[in-house]
Design a protein that fits this description.
The protein is of the alpha/beta class and about 350 residues long. The protein is built from seven helices and 14 strands.
């Protein structure tokens, strides 16, 4: 009953909002150097040294309210860039707006990719016959140190998962409530693999949310870029990266703009700890029937206030809010260890 009431309130809140002075990137051509391509919602595509890494794409975007959901395969085929050389697909959590399109993309656009995510994602992907191409990273995730939001966990053992030109690490994170302190999508939880994909929206539960630390490696296996990624806003210290011994700073933070008003000090507390050179906004556009060519801001959230605050408080960090399907150039690489 409470969930139904909140859905009604969302409807009454009106439509998604136009950009109104925010500064996303333009439809620029692909840069010659390394870059991130924003795919919309929480999805990103990263090419590095002839290999590709995917962060769970979402294109179907069912219209509001999304009660029954199904992947729109034609829309995926029209919008999803070529990722045939992708070996890695990272999943932060298993809600429909992050996982619904993944089975089709794994079969067609990224047929070599192995998906990495939480236990819930594995049970759901089994329903699409893809369990053999899934790795449950939940047992290997770095847990956060509770009780002091300013201090990340110190890692004393290797938690990296290597894969060619990339390596990555799962970090315990948290999913922000959607509205009024309630997560609208936490319905059925699974204890075993599914035999088919569900259609009811609340049968795509998020499970344990994971943040990711991603290294782009040179030919010697040394990190050239380090990226911190979250596909959901969280309360500190959830999602905080661990303290590593190699002295490499975090170059790029990919943050989730959605539901930042439902948690405390996000992403401010995170930025205070990691001090990235570049911060990129993801999950900033309304994703109920949204069109990539005309993105709009999320309803019932003042994202302009978020952007203004972060620009004022962190002028030393370059900030970019890209349109879907556009590119964000990575900053020039630093020498190893610089920044600590």
């Amino acid at each position: 009953m409470r969930v139904a009431l909140l859905l009604v309130l969302l409807c009454l809140a009106g439509c998604a909002k136009d950009l109104n002075g925010t500064e996303p990137t333009t439809q620029a051509p692909k840069p010659s150097g390394p870059s991130l391509q924003y795919l919309g919602v929480g999805g990103w595509l990263l090419h590095w040294r002839g290999e590709t890494l995917l962060l769970a794409p979402s294109f179907s975007n069912p219209a509001f309210p999304p009660v029954f959901v199904k992947a729109n395969e034609q829309r995926i085929d029209d919008l999803m860039p070529d990722a045939r050389d992708a070996k890695v697909l990272l999943i932060g959590h298993a809600h429909y707006d992050h996982l619904l399109d993944v089975p089709h993309i794994m079969r067609k656009q990224a047929p070599q990719a192995i998906a990495y995510g939480n236990e819930e994602a594995g049970h759901l992907l089994a329903g699409a016959g893809l369990k053999s191409r899934f790795v449950n990273m939940q047992p290997k995730m770095v847990t956060v140190r509770r009780g002091n939001r300013a201090k990340p966990q110190i890692v004393t053992q290797d938690r990296w998962e290597p894969n060619g030109a990339f390596r990555f690490m799962a970090i315990e994170s948290q999913h922000a409530p959607h509205i009024a302190g309630i997560n609208l999508l936490e319905g059925t939880r699974y204890r075993e693999d599914l035999t088919q994909l569900p259609t009811y929206v609340r049968r795509w539960p998020g499970g344990q949310t994971l943040a990711w630390l991603i290294d782009l490696l040179d030919e010697k296996g040394e990190p050239v870029y380090r990226i911190h990624y979250q596909d959901s806003a969280s309360n500190p210290p959830y999602g905080f990266p661990p303290i590593l011994q190699d002295g490499k700073r975090i170059d790029i933070a990919i943050i989730c703009a959605a539901s930042t008003d439902q948690v405390q000090l996000y992403p401010d507390a995170l930025l205070d700890v990691i001090k990235p050179r570049l911060m990129v906004y993801g999950h900033w556009e309304d994703f109920f029937g949204n069109e990539p060519s005309r993105p709009q801001l999320i309803r019932v959230q003042d994202e302009n206030a978020l952007i203004d605050r972060l620009k004022a408080n962190y002028p030393e960090i370059k900030q970019v809010m890209p349109y879907p399907l556009t590119y964000v150039p990575l900053p020039p690489p630093e020498s190893h260890g610089k920044g600590h």
